[in-house]
Amino acid sequence: MAAAATCSTGTRSTGSVVVAASRNSVTSFQRRGPRASGTDSGCSRLVSIAGTRPSVRNGQLLVSTGLPALDQLLGGGLAVGTVLLIEEDKYNIYSPLLFKYFLAEGIVTGHTLLVASAKEDPADILQELPAPLLDDNCKKECDEDIYNHKTESNIKMKIAWRYQLLPKMEARPVSSSRFGHYYDVSKRIPQELIEASKWHGFFLPEKISSTLNLEPCSLSHSYIKLLQFIQNIIYEEGFDGSNPQKKQKNILRIGIQNLGSPLWGDDICWTENCDSNHSLTKFLYMLRGLLRSSLSACIITVPTHLIQNKAIIARVTNLSDTVVGLESFIGSEKETNPLYKDYHGLIHIRQIPQLNNLIYDVSDVKDLAFKLKRKLFTIEVFLRATSDAFLKQKERLHLPPDLSDTVSRSSKQDLAESTKLLGPGCGMTARGKKHLDF
Amino acid sequence: MFPELNNLLNTTPDQTEQGKLTLLCDAKTDGSFLVHHFLSFYLKANCKVCFVALIQSFSHYNIVGQKLGVSLTTARECGQLVFLEGLKSAVDVFFRPQEEPHPLQFLREANSGNLQPLYEFVQEALKPMDSGEAAWRCPVLLVDDLSVLLSLGVGAVAVLDFIHYCRATVCREWKGNVVALVHDSGDAEDEENDILLNGLGHQSHLILRAEGLATGFCKDVHGQLRILWRRPSEPTAQRDRSLTYQYKIQDKNVSFFAKGMSPAVL
């Protein structure tokens, strides 16, 4: 309980409850909302796991990706038993952030972690996780930021009002405070939290040196090792339902970094036709099989831009559940494009799984951009046109909003918009919405 | 089962055609609603169904099946449905090797590509009974989806051979039906997948091709379905006639309409 003690000093009760829940994970910390509404009968017995909530849509148990904006885009969160595949951006700058958010969320909610990497020691990865913004210090920082923007926002209100109608990606932090948390990327996660958490590391160079006497199989050696490791954890710690858990049920969060990169011993990155063409897809299939029968969720980052054979990417996408692609502007001509100057890249939701459903819900908003602020990684609806009259005119003509006319006004608009998004982003829904009234 | 699709295909569960291979194919969209249609259709038609489900878990198909009015659990209990859950079996085969050959034995083998155990499994599952128990109408093999086999390292030719064997046994010998889904890789230039798709298109009697809209995402129209009949016996006017409809997937149904005639547009 050291973690709870240190973190709860000076915080309001809610703040400390989150941390305490991560250690004890008992009923008193549960929100009444989801359980009272009782979405699906199959899930009701699972609801008592901290940091999860049942999906309204398909009754699946969801976990947060650690980025509430992304959760919302993915239909509430990541379903337990599924794989989230992140297509890495070209220089691998922003994808590790999503990876770390996912793991940090696991630590805060008290889930067991399994971190696999061929590049960094999992212990080091954990050290670099972002610090959670619990309610109290979040509020303080919000106030700070809002103060900075206050004068501007009052003036710019008139320009910003129409964006109220746009769907907001950063919403409902109050209601999801138990489910998803916000993180400060400029700070490291408190050491106590890491010490209190339960995690397993798979560092490939450490594991690979051992025996090579496996029977021949078309899977590459490192993938076999990793699968066996995961299966072992799932089985021994009782994450598969068949092996009754003695203690409270918990979620296993699996994170696999740079899967398919040369460090994993996969040669799909430099040859188009090779013998191990099926190694990665086969691994993913097995992993999917393991996840489907256990209380676990998995995030994988894959350097898809390195994979030579495009057919493999298509197959990998088919075998994963949720696929999110990051495209950073660094090094591309978009970096200098005035239209994109307030963002660091685009985020593409490539695939959303159909679970227990005929319909797969696709978000209406396709233009999403991300921005790494000083503390927060934010996802925003990317606005192509910024002038009201101009937009109306375009709508009437059914023309796509053009870029050329908009550049002059975009800066003011985006400023106003960012102030608006900032409020809800830090746990101030009411404020974020209401201060736009005039 | 979607009544509107039955109308388009001129079938009802009471009068099913026999001895046909139906190829389901999807490009730039998800065609699994077609699999759910045929699964519920043949279960309602009182056929003996062998479902090789490689991509999703049993509970997924079961829950969707319930929305479409069939219970896979009861069908499995009373022997109407034989369900091979690929994901679960793969883990079993991989981590808990057994003595007797498993239908998905190829997962363990180094130079995989031998689908014979899978064929034997299908054969065993659909073998006509000696008129002892409840007699099912005709045997049906349903595969979701064949592209996964390619991802698992089976060659396209081996998959084509497997389907050919199944067709010879199920369609011809037992007067049953085979339905299989294959993804169309589109721009990805997946050579093996193209071989498989073209090879199957050549053999099949009916091709249902779900495509995403060329103009991009739309909230009210989820895609278009192309229906291609290949009936050698009919006069040329009827032969190879192709029909295109647009569709919208709803919670428990799929509505089809002529191109450009979406209720949202009119």
Automatic annotation (TrEMBL), chain A:
UniProt entry keywords in alphabetical sequence: Cytoplasm, Nucleus, tRNA processing
Location in or out of the cell: Cytoplasm; Nucleus
Superkingdom assignment: Eukaryota
Pfam families referenced in this protein's UniProt entry, alphabetically: PAXNEB (PF05625)
Assigned protein family: Belongs to the ELP4 family.
The protein's role, per its UniProt record: Component of the elongator complex which is required for multiple tRNA modifications, including mcm5U (5-methoxycarbonylmethyl uridine), mcm5s2U (5-methoxycarbonylmethyl-2-thiouridine), and ncm5U (5-carbamoylmethyl uridine). The elongator complex catalyzes the formation of carboxymethyluridine in the wobble base at position 34 in tRNAs.
Protein's name according to its UniProt entry: Elongator complex protein 4
Organism annotation: Delphinapterus leucas (Beluga whale)
Gene from which this protein is expressed: ELP4
UniProtKB/TrEMBL annotation, chain B:
Places the protein is found: Cytoplasm; Nucleus
Keywords: Cytoplasm, Nucleus, tRNA processing
Chief location bin: cytoplasm
Top-level taxon of origin: Eukaryota
BP GO annotations: autophagosome maturation; cellular response to stress; homeostasis of number of retina cells; inflammasome-mediated signaling pathway; locomotory behavior; motor behavior; neuromuscular process controlling balance; neuron apoptotic process
Pathway membership: tRNA modification; 5-methoxycarbonylmethyl-2-thiouridine-tRNA biosynthesis
GO (cellular component) term, any one: cytosol
Record family assignment: Belongs to the ELP6 family.
Function per UniProt: Component of the elongator complex which is required for multiple tRNA modifications, including mcm5U (5-methoxycarbonylmethyl uridine), mcm5s2U (5-methoxycarbonylmethyl-2-thiouridine), and ncm5U (5-carbamoylmethyl uridine). The elongator complex catalyzes formation of carboxymethyluridine in the wobble base at position 34 in tRNAs. Involved in cell migration.
Assembly mode: Component of the elongator complex which consists of ELP1, ELP2, ELP3, ELP4, ELP5 and ELP6.
Protein name (record): Elongator complex protein 6
Organism whose genome encodes this protein: Monodon monoceros
Gene this protein is translated from: ELP6
